[in-house]
Amino acid sequence: MVIIGLSGVGLFLMIIGSVVTYYARKPNGSGIIQISDDEAGKLMAEHTPTSLIFSEVSYTVNNRKVLDNVSGIVQPGQVMAIMGASGAGKTTLLDILAKRLKSGTATGSIYLNGQNVAPEQYKKLIGYVDQEDVMIPTLTVYETILYSALLRLPRSMSTAAKKFRVMEVMQELGIDGIKDSKIGQPGARSISGGERRRVAIACELVTSPSVLFLDEPTSGLDAYNALNVVECLVNLAKNYKRTVVFTVHQPRSNIVTLFDQLLLLASGRVVYSGPESEAQSYFKLIGYPCPPGFNIADYMIDLTMGAVRRLPNQPSSIVKSSLTADSTAVDEDNAFFAPSQTPKATPSFQEGLENTTEQWATQPSAGNSNVTSAPDIQVEEVQEDGLPSYLKDLVEYYQHSAIAVVIKDAIQNTVDAAQGLEGDQSSINSISIYQRPGPLAQFQILANRTFKNLYRNPMLMFSHYAMAVILALVCGSLFYQVSNTIAGFQNRMGLFFFYEALLGFMCLTSLQVFASERILFVRERANGYYSPTTYFLAKILFDIIPLRVVPPLMMALISYYMVGLVEGVAQFFKFLLVLILFNLTAAAVCLAIGIIVKNLSLANLLACMVMLFSMLFAGLLLNKDSMPPYFGWLKYLSFFNYTLEAMLVNELLYLQLVEERFGLKIDVPGATILSTFGFNAKNYWPDVIRLASMFLVFILIAYIWLVLFVKERR
């Protein structure tokens, strides 16, 4: 039987090795893809050129105003950059525009093509790329984007069409040349940071969003890769009529010139909103000219931080009255700029801005001003509303400027036109909401992805198997053919307890089952990839079967007959059942802790404490009948207790032990020994049921916590 057990384990390991080798060498199927003309036409028709308009957007959290009256407009084919110092409200504004869940109160209006859009249609038309690129390192670039397409594109769309869409997006972003490269770990051999960022963008583009939001797409990149990413976004907007909005902290000058629209924030207020090409003229007009050779982006950030001094010949009252007079004067030549009039015939937004530039050029103060040689630190008093006086002036300058009137009128005219016209203008709300893959299809896709990640990183699985085989052989040799004596009983009890401790602490690896992908899960859940249920089932399936069922099976096959435990096929399978149930329960406890506790070190400490306390009340280190009453109830929480009792009952219930004393042989029934240690000889099946119940309870706790609490919070 020992030889049979060893042969079975060896055969199993050979099969596992062959499967891993086969799938590791199997091509990923990113070759030539053919689809029908109908599907190709449908793919081309998915995209709807869409303008983004936001008016008087404000956001308050904990009675603190984070954003105040922010407005702007971005047309299809344009790129808007939201700039500002740290804490200016850039990401908050981006989240509100993308309608991400926020804990505070947001007010204002957001329109697509001038129309209010239902939440379902809005999500269909936008894509959101987070600042941090979190991906599965063992997958290739093509596979990473493909899984996004398989999970998010319509269920009615063929797999070939989805693969075609993936290839199309990779070509749009210029990453088709690295499609077979693995994502890799940051800091190790992998694709570059700029390529990772473009892969993250591609995962959103597969759904053909009309408006693409990106949070700090250049963050953490060197100058070369940052420029490549922004150029990629600009080409995406120009060539494919996308509307691109992203936040950026302090870009280089060659990146700034690529922006179409610029929105500069300071403490949640608008300091400038308009074409990037007109920003220098605007700040020169209000008495803050950018020094020659100075990066305008750096200058604007310094300006919002109070590190720039106004020209001495530009008093605030003169500038404000000049801006107000400018807005009124323009009304005589072009009705588009009138703050109190909505014309029937509206020129283009760009034309209005060009006229604004001409008006600035005629300002005497702008043309004859001297340029400051370097920024100076300026200390300003804080006003009652919490804003420094210099910042309050900047906000008021913009509010009184002609360009603010241009944007305000453009927003109003676009909304009025959209609400008054039929046909193409109402196409946004008529977009059908397609059905994504159902729960079963999601589970199959996620299971495939999880299995692929497992066999491409098989060290954890093989480490469990190697440890199980080696320690089973060691235990089999150490406890070889144990005798039916009191000493033999002690050896049996020690062996069973050692198996529990070994498998229990091996289950600490279950802490990593979810912790390693927590951020990825939160991001994918927020972007609507799948339901938490299908993800949870796929993850536990590929943790339970290879890591929690197979190792105890190997240990039982090798050591059961080497040790010489009670004979009988039924007894063997009853022993195996208890061992597997114990391993599943310990894994479920660690899984629940890993999901509930975010900090992995703290989760590891907590899981170790749970294991140790459960071991303490197992019945070996402390006799169950002699426990103090106020601690005795803790044994009912110990899965070590139920496991040890079930294995001992299975082994000793009908076993007759022989003890030799003073030349006399004394027969001692195994049931008597069990009762001496506080174990109940009738408790095998009740203990099995309790173990199964504990497993289900902890799995349910992990699942409920995952669904209710592990979600994006902004």
From TrEMBL:
Keyword Protein transport tagged: no
Annotated spans, Disordered: 340-374
Native source species: Rhizopus microsporus var. microsporus
Cellular localization per UniProt: Endoplasmic reticulum membrane
SUPFAM superfamilies: P-loop containing nucleoside triphosphate hydrolases (SSF52540)
InterPro entries: AAA+_ATPase (IPR003593), ABC2_TM (IPR013525), ABC_transporter-like_ATP-bd (IPR003439), ABC_transporter-like_CS (IPR017871), ABCG_dom (IPR043926), ABCG_transporters (IPR050352), P-loop_NTPase (IPR027417)
Transmembrane segments: 462-482, 494-515, 535-563, 575-596, 602-622, 634-655, 688-710
Keywords, in A-Z order: ATP-binding, Endoplasmic reticulum, Glycoprotein, Hydrolase, Membrane, Nucleotide-binding, Signal, Transmembrane, Transmembrane helix, Transport
PANTHER family: ABC TRANSPORTER G FAMILY MEMBER 28 (PTHR48041), ATP-DEPENDENT PERMEASE-RELATED (PTHR48041:SF2)
A single MF term (Gene Ontology): ATP hydrolysis activity
Major location category of this protein: endoplasmic reticulum
Matching Gene3D superfamilies: P-loop containing nucleotide triphosphate hydrolases (3.40.50.300)
Name of the protein described by the UniProt record: P-loop containing nucleoside triphosphate hydrolase protein
Domain ABC transporter as annotated: residue spans: 52-292
GO cellular component, one term: endoplasmic reticulum membrane
Topology of this chain in the membrane: Multi-pass membrane protein
Lineage: Eukaryota, Fungi, Fungi incertae sedis, Mucoromycota, Mucoromycotina
Family label: Belongs to the ABC transporter superfamily. ABCG family. Eye pigment precursor importer (TC 3.A.1.204) subfamily.
